[in-house]
Amino acid sequence: MPLFWKPYKSDVTQFIDELRAKKPTLEAEQRAGRALLWDKPVDRQAQADWKDARVAQKPYVYQND
Question: Which of 23, 36, 54, 55 sits between 20 and 30 A of 14, alpha carbons compared?
Answer without folding.
Answer: 36
